[in-house]
Fold:
Amino acid sequence: MNIKPLLGIHHVSALTANAKENYHFYTKVLGLRLVKKTVNQDDTSVYHLFYADERGNPGTDLTFFEIPHSGRTYPGTNSITATSLRVKDNKALHYWKNRFEQFNVDHDEISNESGRATLSFRDQEGQRLILVSDENNVGVAGGKPWANSPVPQENGVVGLGPVHLTVSRPERTIKVLTDLMGFREKDGYTKDEDQKQVRVFETGEGGTGAEIHVSELDQVGRERPGRGSVHHVAFRVEDVEELNKWVDILNANHLSNSGFVERYYFRSLYFREPNGILFELATDGPGFEGDEDFEHLGEKLALPPYFEAQRKEIEARLEPLDTEQ
Structure:
């Protein structure tokens, strides 16, 4: 079957127990734009918040499902253990280190990972995040930080960077990435703090916006997710025609999957790789401006047309969340 390579990382979706605190941190501290305030389409009683560049370009979305009263995360294997956010250059990392100190954000020192300057940090729920410098990056282009962000545009987050997977049997995950999904092995590196070997895989044009980093951890149990954990990673597919080809490919390889799923802002397909991590394939469009104009993205509760008849009931179950600028 003639199929195009995956274009890179589309989005990462994580869990939060508190939408208000989450909104404050990701918009007021990290300076991302809330481009869509909607609901979890599989459970409309909770929010689904999309933070991104100025208009939610593919490859820039970090999203959160609110699961009120969710417990803590117990770290372990067979999980997404870090999400990277791209910034323009090394200088920006020094800006962020100072900003984290100003806002009392838990962070490490600036270091080097796979030939790039990085800065690891955690949000108030322990979400594991890494700022990565694009100073020497060649590959998938980043987005454009929102002009009205509290963070100056030259230091703003331009998109998602490498997603880190920790698995008990890496050969199983790697086989799916390379033989099925078309990723190619790029290089590797050693994490200094624990001498852990990390293998790097890329797709499409490559670069920070198209990498998966895989490391092995087999002496602890599976991660128990909760607030501060990652739910899934999504990869970019050009359009619906390509997505339908992937449905056929997964079926031909006897991989259980969701089949085509309508998400309104994009179209999706879900499956679990052999170590149990949830992967999504998502189309680049239609995007977030079909039901809100650019100037007012994320200010009101947006519902796909197939939920509009239930708006009153849905709004009654949600805690109010003021996101008007």
Remarks:
- Residues 9-317 form a domain with the 2,3-Dihydroxybiphenyl 1,2-Dioxygenase; domain 1 fold (CATH 3.10.180.10).
